[in-house]
Prior knowledge:
By secondary structure, this protein is an all-alpha fold. It contains 20 helices and no strands. It has helices at 7-16, 26-40, 43-50, 54-67, 72-96, 100-108, 110-140, 146-163, 166-175, 182-189, 194-202, 210-223, 226-239, 246-276, 286-297, 299-332, 346-363, 370-396, 399-402, 409-433. Helix 18 (370-396) packs antiparallel against helix 20 (409-433). The longest helix is centred in the C-terminal third of the chain and has 34 residues, at 299-332. The protein is globular, with a radius of gyration of 22 Å. The termini are far apart. The model is unreliable at 1-40 (pLDDT under 50). The chain crosses the membrane at residues 71-91, 112-135, 141-160, 172-190, 210-232, 253-276, 303-324, 345-365, 371-393, 413-435.
Amino acid sequence: MRARVPPALGRVRSALLGGRPRLRGRASARPDRLLGLLGLLGPGLIAANAGNDAGGIATYSQVGARYGYGLLWMMVVITVSLAVVQSMAARMGAVTGKGLAELIRENYGIRWSAFATAAVLVANLGICVSDFVGVGAALDLAGIPAQLTVPVAAAGIWLIIVRGSYRAAERIFIWLTIPFFAYPVAAILARPSWGDVGHAVVAPHLQMSSGYLLLFVATAGTTITPYMQLYLQSATAERGVRAEDLKKETREAVSGAVFADLVAGFIIIATGATLFTHGIHGVDSASQAAKALAPFAGRYAEALFGVGLLGASLLAAAILPIATSYVVSEALGFEKGLGRRPREAPVFVGVITAMIAVATIVAVVPGIPVIALLIGVQVVNGVLLPINLFFIWRLARSTRLMGEHRNRGVVDLITAATVLFTGSLSIVLVAVTVLGL
Length: 437
């Protein structure tokens, strides 16, 4: 007598054997298709969008408010560099199965590893604080105080990272990228002149004022952020991606970079079409930019800006402690991994817990200087970025380490140009702001 197979098991067996499971109507088909799509996404999309955090949104809002569409052309250049760097980090993670800090320690010694780690840690805690500030600011738009929302968000993030599995955490992070779609809608509601937008994209316009250069470096620093590459490479390695999967991982990393920078461009367009056009050239935070949009683009634009800020802040507030903990654990040779319990990876879990706790405490302090924190940290990122990019470039072009997957040709030239470009920006920033040139 033939045993009866339960319906759920039958669908799984059918899928494994290549057949299509029978679904109960359209309502069941749509969630399954959506879950299938989410399965194709991963660290590349998460890492790139984590860069559009509260500080990034504040920076892009400043760019649009002060210079209109004048810096949109730079987003095109940065997108090419970001796509190359993201795909390179994913490739190293897949080929070597190791994170960047671990590779630096093994190939250049503990001193260089400590130096590179210190360069990341200088900025990461400040960015983490700014993202929890962003969570509070986003919900404050709805009248909910930060002293209530920030601790709740911090507890939820800690539980997802420490008590959940890697797959569950990654799926939640992917869902947190959905609010970014609010920014293109907000830009459309702002009714920009799309002809002017197109002209600004293809016609570079440079200024030599200190304010312009400051935002120039801040924009580069918040778009190609060191912790993005650190998280992406370590997460790719932990995900168990193999060298034969490189084409799919590369496509995912590049598409994530393009999507993230399109979102950044729409933020600039929205604020440029409203705030810059009406003479409001300064905003202190992303939440203030949201409030300022309302008189010119309507309450829906303010709400959409707030939704995007909340999703962006939650995503980055989760990724930053993970990226920092990866770096510390890899640099010192400790056990690491999402979903590891404190007894299994005490240093990894301890760094995550400490960063979330400190960021939460600082974020709920009344009167925190938001603009100095958000924009200042992004400038620090712009200065420190060449350090990490230099190590990524050197390691990715190593024949011994990467074999046939090493950097070469056009990709190697673009990476070298990115390192040189960001290094030059850092020198110019120091000359303008410190030496007064």
